[in-house]
């Protein structure tokens, strides 16, 4: 798929989702970047800000299989992956697939499940496969987890461990709407939900073609060095106990490549890297001491690093 077609595909999906979601173009774009980059996304915000509605609008815009799981403390790993059960008519065991065998999985309130259940997502999120009773089963493409969590409740919740957070390409917040956006929401949802009116504008083959093509977006050595310096600075920052891993640098490059493609370019610029740095890296940092309890401490550290690292002059890019 040519870069221009990736941009057109993303624009078509974004316009369709915007028929439901008011004023969250940046969040919608990150959702599209995540699925094209074969990544997953964690939506964190207070209840009622549209996290679940956004995920549902995304699924309805794509002609793909969609499953929703309400995570609770009594949810078991087998409730996600599926089980082998004995079929008395056939006299043999059969596999009953769980909700993980889908294209888009909405993991609602993921931090309400126990660590045992949360960890059952690690293999499928990273390797797109599930091991059940010693047998490995591949997941369909595309496969994307859209997880939501409420950051203000502590009772009955289990914070996601660092290894789990590292599997998400982005962690983003929806945020409250502005006054004007609030009025639009009231008018748009006054009679009925616009979610029921939208239909699919793309299918799985379109997304797979985009996933197979975005890697053609190039990155000059100076841009790669700039990206790597940002990641390495997270490991030596005075407020950070543990910085981003090589998986984080790879995720940042993938996100920057798709970000460039959505702007019609076949090359990555430092601005692409800077735009993706906070949503890709902030949730991968473990902060020191009192900074661990400050919700925006990691974002502040990334801002400080972006100001500190010298931006390349891009002589090769300017000649394009």
Give the CA-based shape: globular
Distance between the termini: 21 Å
Helix content: 40-55%
Number of domains: 2
Per CATH, the architecture of the largest domain is: 3-Layer(aba) Sandwich
Largest sheet: 5 strands, parallel
Please write the string of helix (H) and strand (E) elements.
HHEHEEHEEEHHEEEHEHEHHEHHEHH
Q: What is the level 1 CATH name of the largest domain?
A: Alpha Beta
What is the strand and helix layout of this fold?
Blueprint: H1 3-17, H2 25-36, E1 41-44, H3 51-61, E2 62-63, E3 66-70, H4 77-81, E4 82-87, E5 92-97, E6 104-108, H5 115-119, H6 122-127, E7 129-132, E8 135-138, E9 144-149, H7 162-165, E10 170-172, H8 179-188, E11 202-203, H9 204-213, H10 221-236, E12 240-242, H11 246-261, H12 270-281, E13 286-287, H13 297-308, H14 315-318
Parallel strand pairs: 1-9, 1-10, 2-11, 3-6, 6-9
Antiparallel strand pairs: 4-5, 7-8, 12-13
Helix pairs in contact: 1-2, 10-11, 10-12, 11-12, 12-13
Features:
320 residues, alpha/beta, Rossmann fold, Helicase, Ruva Protein, domain 3, 2 domains, five-stranded parallel beta sheet, two-stranded parallel sheet, 13 strands, 43% helix, globular
Structure, described:
It is a single chain. The protein is α/β, with parallel strands linked by helices and 320 residues long. It folds into 2 domains: 214 residues, 3-Layer(aba) Sandwich (Rossmann fold); 104 residues, Magnesium chelatase subunit I, C-Terminal domain (Helicase, Ruva Protein, domain 3), CATH 1.10.8.80. Helix content is 43%, strand content 16%. The chain is built from 14 helices and 13 strands. The strands form 5 sheets. A 5-stranded parallel β-sheet has the order 3-6-9-1-10. It has a two-stranded parallel sheet with strand order 2-11. Strands 4-5 form a two-stranded antiparallel sheet. A hairpin with a 2-residue loop joins strand 7 and strand 8. Helix 1 crosses helix 2, helix 11 packs across helix 12 and helix 12 packs antiparallel against helix 13. The longest helix is centred in the last third of the chain and has 16 residues. The protein is globular and about 70 Å long. The model has no long low-confidence stretch (mean pLDDT 87).
């Amino acid at each position: 798929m040519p870069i221009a077609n990736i941009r057109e595909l993303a624009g078509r999906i974004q316009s369709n989702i915007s028929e439901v979601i008011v004023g969250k173009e940046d969040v919608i774009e990150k959702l599209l970047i995540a699925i094209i980059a074969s990544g997953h996304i964690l939506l964190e915000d207070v209840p009622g800000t549209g996290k679940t509605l956004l995920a549902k609008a995304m699924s309805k815009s794509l002609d793909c299989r969609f499953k929703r799981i309400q995570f609770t403390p009594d949810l078991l790993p087998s409730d996600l992956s599926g089980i082998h059960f004995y079929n008395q008519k056939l006299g043999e065991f059969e596999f009953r697939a769980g909700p993980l065998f889908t294209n888009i999985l909405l993991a609602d309130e993921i931090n309400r499940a126990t660590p045992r259940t949360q960890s059952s997502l690690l293999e499928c999120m990273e390797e797109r496969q599930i091991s059940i009773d010693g047998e490995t089963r591949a997941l369909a493409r595309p496969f994307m987890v859209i997880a939501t969590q409420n950051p203000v409740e502590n009772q009955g919740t289990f914070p996601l461990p660092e290894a789990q957070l590292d599997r998400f390409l982005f962690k983003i917040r929806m945020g409250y709407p502005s006054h004007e956006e609030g009025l639009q929401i009231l008018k748009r949802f006054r009679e009925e939900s616009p979610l029921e009116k939208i239909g699919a504008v793309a299918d799985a083959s379109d997304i797979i073609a985009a996933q197979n093509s975005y890697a053609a977006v190039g990155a000059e050595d100076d841009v790669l060095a700039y990206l790597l310096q940002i990641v390495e600075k997270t490991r030596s920052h005075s407020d950070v106990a543990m910085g981003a891993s090589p998986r984080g640098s790879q995720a940042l490059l993938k996100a920057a490549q798709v970000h460039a493609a959505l702007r019609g370019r076949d090359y990555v610029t430092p601005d692409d890297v800077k735009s993706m740095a906070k949503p890709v890296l902030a949730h991968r940092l473990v902060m020191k001491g009192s900074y661990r309890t400050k919700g925006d401490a990691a974002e502040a550290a990334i801002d400080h690093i972006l100001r500190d690292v010298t931006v390349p002059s891009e002589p090769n890019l300017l000649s394009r």
